[in-house]
Amino acid sequence: MNGVRQQRQRLLWVDPPVVEGAPDDDSLDIRAGRSIAQVDQVPPGSAYRTTHGDDPLILVNAGGKITTFLAVCTHEGCPLGWNPNQHLIRCPCHGSAFDTAGRVVNGPARVPLTALQTIVERGEVLLVEPTR
């Protein structure tokens, strides 16, 4: 889980979009980073698992909008998967479930998933990262 903690210092979160440890002024520029998937790998109504460094990611396409989350359950850190029949992100360890917006719909998890900001450009899903 050390890799997840390190990513939280480098990646731009959404809802609201802030960077942990970032200065309060506008001296932080934002740039599109590494490609984490091709758009066709995440068709509408599906999800796609990948990694960024050591961190597992899950990309969900709900109604044509691709959202990216850390694929780690907020209950006890288990890896997450996708249930295509329920259209839910599920934890196999203790049964937590999250909707396509990362909100908890079934516990024991109480905290929503960590969303990462991405953009779609030229058929690729790009992770947005801060630059200094």
Structural write-up:
- This protein is mainly beta and 132 residues long.
- The chain has a single domain, classed as Rieske Iron-sulfur Protein.
- The protein has 1 helix and 11 strands.
- The chain has one helix spanning 2-10; strands at residues 29-38, 47-52, 55-62, 65-70, 81-83, 88-90, 97-98, 104-106, 115-116, 118-121, 124-131.
- The longest helix has 9 residues, at 2-10.
- The relative contact order is 0.25.
- The model is unreliable at 1-30 (pLDDT under 50).
State the helix count: 1
The fourth-level CATH homologous superfamily is Rieske [2Fe-2S] iron-sulphur domain
Q: What is the N-to-C order of secondary-structure elements (H for helix, E for strand)?
A: HEEEEEEEEEEE
Through-space gap between termini: 25 Å
| Beta-strand proportion | 35-45%
Structurally, how many domains make up the residues?
A: 1
State the secondary-structure class: mainly beta
Question: What do the pLDDT scores average to?
Answer: 79
The major pleated sheet works out as: 4 strands, antiparallel
CATH architecture: 3-layer Sandwich
Radius of gyration: 14 Å
Strand order of the largest sheet: 2-3-4-9
Classify the helix fraction into a percent range.
under 10%
Which quaternary structure do these chains form?
single chain
| Shape type | globular
Write the layout of secondary structure elements.
Elements: H1 2-10, E1 29-38, E2 47-52, E3 55-62, E4 65-70, E5 81-83, E6 88-90, E7 97-98, E8 104-106, E9 115-116, E10 118-121, E11 124-131
Antiparallel strand pairs: 1-11, 2-3, 3-4, 4-9, 5-6, 6-7, 7-8, 10-11
